[in-house]
Design goal:
The protein has 515 residues and is of the alpha+beta class. It contains 18 helices and 23 strands. Among the domains are: 252 residues, 2-Layer Sandwich (BirA Bifunctional Protein, domain 2); 105 residues, Rossmann fold.
C-alpha cells in the first residue's frame, strides 16, 4: 500500500489536474462515477501530444510499421480464441469486516514489496556507513538479514506462482493466511475464500438478448491487430519483420480501480505488434527493449525513474516478458509491457476462424505462422508519469512559492503564452498581432488579465514552457522578452527571430532526432 506521504503527493497531483483543467471526475454533477475521468482542455492537449510522440516514433520513423484503427466491438469468437472468455480472470478475495474487495495476488505482492523495502533500507544504511568502499552486490549476497528477507520473497513468489499457474485458489488463500496479511481498512484477517472474476464487460448486440447476442467491450486493443494481420500484410505489401500499431480505448471491469488514473475501467492503450520469423524473437525482444526505453528517456523525466522488471510468472504462450516500470508517487509500477508472444495469437485465430494466417516466404520456399513481439503502453499511465515527474512545488529565492509543471516542452499543452505588459498604450494590439502569427505554428495562449507576475504563475501551473512579454520597448525596436519556465530566466529577441527560437525549443522534430 502507498504510505501517507505518497498518497498525499498523488492527491496533490489529482487536485492540481482538476483545478487547472487537466482531468475532471466523470459525471461530477451527478456525484461522479468511480474510477472514471474526463480529460479537460489542457489534459486533452497533453494526451494528444503524447499520442503524437508515440505515433511518430513508432510509425513514421519505422518504414516497416503501419497503423490501424480497429473497432471496439469484435466478433465474440475473437475473445474465445484469445483466451479471454475462459482465462481473463483475477483472483478475488473479500474482507468480511470491512466489506472491501481485493485482488489476492496484489495483497501478496504488497507483502513482498514490504520485504523489499526492508532490504532497501538495510542497503541504504550500509552504503552510508561504508561510503565509497561499499560493495552493494557483496552486501546483498552475504548480509544475513538481507539474505533472509530475499529468501522470504523468493519463497512467497514461488508459492504464489505455483498457485496461480495451477488455479489452486485454496493454496492462494492459505498463502494470505500464512503471511498473516491484514485488511488495511479493518485491520482484521477475516477473509472469504478466493474466487475467480472475469474482467470483461459484456453487452448485447442489436435486439438479440441472451448468449446468442452477447458481445464484449474489448479488454485490449491487440486482438484488433491480430484479426487484421492478413488484410494489412496484403494491402501494405509488407513481409516479416513488420509491425502494426494502434492507439485505442479498452475496457476492464477491474476489481480495484484506484490510484487516480493509474488503474481505470476505461483506458487507452498504445500498442504495436511486430510480426517476425520464428527463431528471431529474442533478438527482436532485446531490440524493442532498447528502443522503448530510449523513447521514454528522451523526454528527460529522469533516467532513475525507469527500471526493467522481468516477469517470473510468464503467460503460457510467452517465452520472454518484461515491464518498463516508472517511479510513480506510489512507487515503481508498470508503465509499458514488452512481450514475446510466440505464435499463440495468429495460431489461435487460425484455428478458431478456419482461415490460413501463415506467411509464405518465397526466399526459403517455406510457410510459417509468424511469431509476435508486442510493445504495449498505457496512455493514461504515461500521462500520469509525465505529471508525476513534472509536478513541483518550489520555494523561490525571494521567499515566495510557486507550483510549476515542468512538462517536457514538446509535450506541453500550451507551448507559448503572449502577454502584453499593460492592457493599454498599443501593447494589446501589438501582442495580438504576434499571437496571430504564433498560433499558426504553436498552441499559443493570449493572456492580458492581472499583473504580469500572476500571469507567469498561471502559465507555470499549466506547464507553458515559454512566455513572450510585449512591452513599450517592443514598439520601439520590435523585440520581445522570452521568459523560460523552469529557470525563470528572460532574454530579449527580435519578433523576426521569435518563431525560429521557439521552434528549436518545442519542436517534435527535435525530440524525434534523439531516437
Amino acid at each position: 500500500m502507498a504510505n501517507s506521504e505518497e498518497a498525499a503527493t498523488l492527491k496533490n497531483i489529482a487536485s492540481h489536474c482538476k483545478e487547472y483543467g487537466f482531468i475532471y471526475p466523470s459525471s461530477e454533477i451527478y456525484d461522479g462515477l468511480a474510477a472514471t475521468y474526463d480529460y479537460g482542455p489542457y489534459g486533452s492537449e497533453l494526451k494528444n501530444n503524447i499520442k503524437e510522440y508515440w505515433w511518430k516514433a513508432m510509425v513514421r520513423l519505422n518504414e516497416n510499421i503501419v497503423g490501424i484503427d480497429a473497432a471496439i466491438f469484435m466478433h465474440p469468437t475473437t475473445w474465445k480464441a484469445s483466451g479471454h472468455v475462459d482465462a481473463f480472470n483475477d483472483p478475488l478475495i473479500d474482507n468480511k469486516d470491512s466489506k472491501k474487495r481485493y485482488r489476492a495476488d496484489v495483497l501478496i505482492e504488497e507483502q513482498m514489496a514490504k520485504l523489499q523495502a526492508k532490504i532497501d533500507k538495510e542497503v541504504d544504511k550500509a552504503a552510508k556507513r561504508f561510503g565509497d568502499a561499499f560493495d552493494k552486490d557483496q552486501f546483498i549476497s552475504t548480509n544475513p538479514r538481507v539474505v533472509g528477507y530475499a529468501e522470504q520473497i523468493a519463497e512467497i513468489e514461488s508459492r504464489m506462482k505455483s498457485s496461480i499457474e495451477s488455479g489452486d485458489l485454496e493454496a492462494l488463500k492459505q498463502l494470505i493466511v500464512d503471511l498473516d496479511i491484514a485488511d488495511p481498512i479493518s485491520g482484521t484477517r477475516n477473509w472469504t475464500d478466493v474466487r475467480q472474476f472475469n474482467l470483461m464487460f459484456s453487452t448485447e448486440l442489436g435486439s438479440v438478448a441472451g448468449e446468442s447476442g452477447k458481445i464484449y467491450l474489448r479488454p485490449e486493443t491487440a486482438q484488433g491487430i491480430f484479426v487484421n494481420y492478413l488484410n494489412v500484410q496484403k494491402t501494405s505489401r509488407l513481409k516479416p519483420p513488420f509491425g502494426i500499431a494502434q492507439i485505442g480505448k479498452a475496457f476492464r471491469n477491474e476489481i480495484i480501480a484506484r490510484q487516480f488514473i493509474f488503474r481505470m475501467r476505461e483506458f487507452e492503450q498504445m500498442e504495436m505488434q511486430f510480426f517476425i520469423q520464428p527463431g528471431t524473437e529474442m533478438e527482436w525482444y532485446e531490440h524493442w527493449k532498447a528502443k522503448r526505453i530510449a523513447w521514454h528517456k528522451a523526454l528527460g523525466l529522469g533516467d532513475d525513474n525507469y527500471r526493467f522488471h522481468d516477469h517470473l510468472n510468464l503467460a503460457h504462450y510467452a517465452n520472454a516478458a518484461c515491464d518498463i516500470e516508472f517511479n510513480f508517487p506510489m512507487g515503481f509500477k508498470e508503465l509499458e509491457g514488452i512481450h514475446s508472444r510466440t505464435d499463440f495469437d495468429l495460431g489461435a485465430h487460425e484455428k478458431f476462424s478456419g482461415k490460413k494466417l501463415k506467411y509464405f516466404d518465397t526466399a526459403t520456399n517455406e510457410s510459417y505462422t509468424p511469431y509476435v513481439l508486442e510493445t504495449s503502453i498505457g496512455l493514461d499511465r504515461m500521462f500520469l508519469a509525465v505529471m508525476s515527474a513534472s509536478y513541483v512545488e518550489e520555494k523561490l529565492a525571494d521567499g515566495s512559492e510557486r507550483t510549476v509543471l515542468k512538462i517536457p516542452p514538446v509535450l506541453a499543452p500550451v507551448k507559448v503564452a503572449v502577454l502584453p505588459l499593460l492592457n493599454k498604450d498599443g501593447l494589446p494590439e501589438k501582442a495580438e498581432a504576434i499571437m496571430r502569427e504564433l498560433k499558426l505554428d504553436f498552441n499559443a495562449q493570449y493572456d492580458a488579465k492581472d499583473a504580469i507576475g500572476k500571469r507567469y504563475r498561471r502559465q507555470d501551473a499549466i506547464g507553458t514552457p515559454y512566455c513572450v512579454t510585449v512591452d513599450h520597448q517592443t514598439l520601439e525596436d520590435s523585440t520581445v522578452t522570452i521568459r523560460e519556465r523552469d529557470s525563470m530566466e528572460q532574454q530579449r529577441v527580435s519578433i523576426e527571430e521569435l518563431i525560429g527560437t521557439l521552434e528549436e525549443k518545442v519542436s517534435m522534430k527535435t525530440l524525434l532526432k534523439k531516437l
